Amino acid sequence: MNNVEERLWNYIDGTCSKDEQKAIDILLAQDEVYQRKYQELLSLDLEFSKMEPEEPSMAFTYNVMEGIRAEYAQKPLKAVVDKRIIRGIAAFFILTIVILVVLVLSNLHLSPVKISVHLPDGLKLPDVKNYFNGPVIKGFLFFDVVLGLFLFDAYLRKRSVSKQL
Q1: CA 93 – CA 87 distance, rounded (Å)
Q2: Do residues 105 and 146 share a domain?
Q3: Which of 72, 93, 109 is at the close of a domain?
Q4: What are the tens digits of pLDDT across the range 38-62?
């Protein structure tokens, strides 16, 4: 675009300063080249104003919005936990609880019922009375209660989420 067209477009759009408007008014009144170019640009501007701007199809808008919605949808994070690890931890605690129950029952002195565990002669168990004193047992039971409450809470949360869906 040359300088004349730019000045005339600014005049038609109303984006030029007042001094430039006065100067172009004078040029339009005196110069025939400016008048022809001005009439040509006015007719072109009129044609532009009659045209409707193109809009994208509804499918395009829908696809874009679905893409944005899918991008920002919050998905729950799922961590993959190896089942062998869970089974190993469960086996450890079950074995520990079974050993504790056997030791408690073997050290219990009930008069009507006599329970005794006979071990083979070559097998000697270490003296564990010093290891399983009051604070150790209380700590172990506290840990078991906290773990049980945690698992119960996880079960209740899973149940409430499944009800909401």
Answers
A1: 10
A2: yes
A3: 72
A4: 888 888 888 888 887 777 777 888 8
Residue type, 97: I
Q: Are residue 68 and residue 99 in the same domain, yes or no?
A: no
Q: Which amino acid is at 75?
A: K
Measured CA to CA in angstroms, residue 164 lies from 17, 42, 78, 152 at distances of 64, 64, 19, 19
Residue 98 in any domain: the answer is yes
Domain that holds residue 134: 83-164
Question: pLDDT digits over 102-149, tens only?
Answer: 888 888 766 665 667 677 777 776 777 777 778 888 888 999 999 999
Query: Between the CA atoms of 23, 28, 31 and 35, what dihedral angle is there, to the nearest 10 degrees?
Result: 140
Please say whether the beta carbons of 40 and 32 come within 8 A: no
